[in-house]
Amino acid sequence: MVSIHSKWRYFFMFLGIQLVVMALLSREGYQKRVSYFIRIFRKPDTTLQSGRNHTAAGIPGGDVYANLSHLSKTHSHANDMPYCPKTSPLIGGPIHVSFPSGLTLADVQKKNPMVVRGGRYRPPDCEARHRTAIIIPHRHREHHLKFLLYYLHPFLQRQQLHYGIYVIHQAGNYTFNRAKLMNVGFREAMREEEWDCLFFHDVDLIPEDDRNTYICDSNPKHAAIAMDKFGYKLPYKMYFGGVSALTPLHYLKMNGFPNNYWGWGGEDDDIGVRVSLAGMYITRPSLKVGRYKMIKHKLDKGNDVNPKRFNMLAKTRTTWKLDGMNTAEYETISREYLPLYTNITVNIGTEAGLHPPPPTRPPPAKAEGKPEVKVSAKAEGKPAEVQAKGPAKLIEGPSVI
Ligand code: BGN
């Protein structure tokens, strides 16, 4: 029979063991576990500064600038640096994306002290395994560009890439041509450095997970597979819009992108069709990783829906070799090496050519087909250097890289 005394003895022994276990646990992050349970009962934090936050779909998202502060300029880019690890230790997964008012390019610059002239970066403590150029077609979207730069710079640094950001700015007010600007970006970026991968990036899409690595695959990659505006799903199987990644070889194999899609729509489908016509296929990251938040906006002035896109798309099979990188004709107006990006302003002309003839009859109120090549190389923040280049005519084939 167990006496009352021995019952108490067992109780105190049990209590003692509990105390020893707790003491041991507290040495190995017990506090972390306790704070984890406390956090479950707390309201989610909504400030931008917090370490972890929640994305639109309730996935916890971290501060894109976390982990980067220890990188310092004291590292020297020595010749004998080891290669960076295959998987960057700085990668943290989901990123919290919000668009705080009052953010300026000067703030973005302050947060990215390791980014150098023209928006270039190399990891300070290891030799990057990949060299990626980001090509961003742009006009009148300074507000979006600021947010994209705020997120993209630390995102790419976390991936330990050697990278450069190129903004290709369409001069004048004629209808926007996204795909032709990409052809310009390809040519101009490759002229400067031997990039091994090019990311063609819409200005209004912010990546939400840094496991979506900005490196190329063995086939053209469609990175923006899950956008918030499509409910984080692919809108249709052949979709190739938003953000895509190609090596220079992929790009030339498909004769680049079409030059003749003026206005909104269809050009990304044409590019997708070119991939398969050139004997390649589209690769994609997982839906969990290829997530993007779109900065909301209305359809731009100067980027009306292109009514010809259905007919043009039906003919891609016969046009892709005749129109593309081998016929991209443009004039470089200026090249500015700004602190956060290289800004290249170009005249890409109109459907009627680079210098369409003036109308013979008195022009109507709104002269269609007449480009007003008024260059606005204005960008927020002071240009570090402006190298006025043009207008120098550049009509080049794919052999000239
Ligand atoms: C498609 C557009 C794409 C656009 C996506 C997503 C066309 C061609 C007609 C078949 N394609 O419909 O350009 O990126 O929607 O918005 O309009």
From TrEMBL:
Keyword check for Glycosyltransferase: yes
Gene Ontology, cellular component aspect: Golgi cisterna membrane; Golgi membrane
Coiled-coil positions: none
Location, primary (coarse class): Golgi
Molecular function via GO: metal ion binding; N-acetyllactosamine synthase activity
Gene3D superfamilies (UniProt xref): Spore Coat Polysaccharide Biosynthesis Protein SpsA, Chain A (3.90.550.10)
Alphabetized SUPFAM superfamilies for the sequence: Nucleotide-diphospho-sugar transferases (SSF53448)
Pro residues composition bias: residue spans: 355-365
Alphabetical list of CDD domains matching this protein: b4GalT (cd00899)
Enzyme class name: transferase
Any one biological process term the GO annotation gives: carbohydrate metabolic process
Catalytic activity: N-acetyl-D-glucosamine + UDP-alpha-D-galactose = beta-D-galactosyl-(1->4)-N-acetyl-D-glucosamine + UDP + H(+)
Cofactor names: Mn(2+)
Domain of life according to the entry: Eukaryota
Keyword tags: Disulfide bond, Glycoprotein, Glycosyltransferase, Golgi apparatus, Manganese, Membrane, Metal-binding, Signal-anchor, Transferase, Transmembrane, Transmembrane helix
Galactosyltransferase N-terminal domain residues: 84-217
Family: Belongs to the glycosyltransferase 7 family.
Function: Responsible for the synthesis of complex-type N-linked oligosaccharides in many glycoproteins as well as the carbohydrate moieties of glycolipids.
Protein name from the UniProt record: Beta-1,4-galactosyltransferase
Organism phylogeny: Eukaryota, Metazoa, Chordata, Craniata, Vertebrata
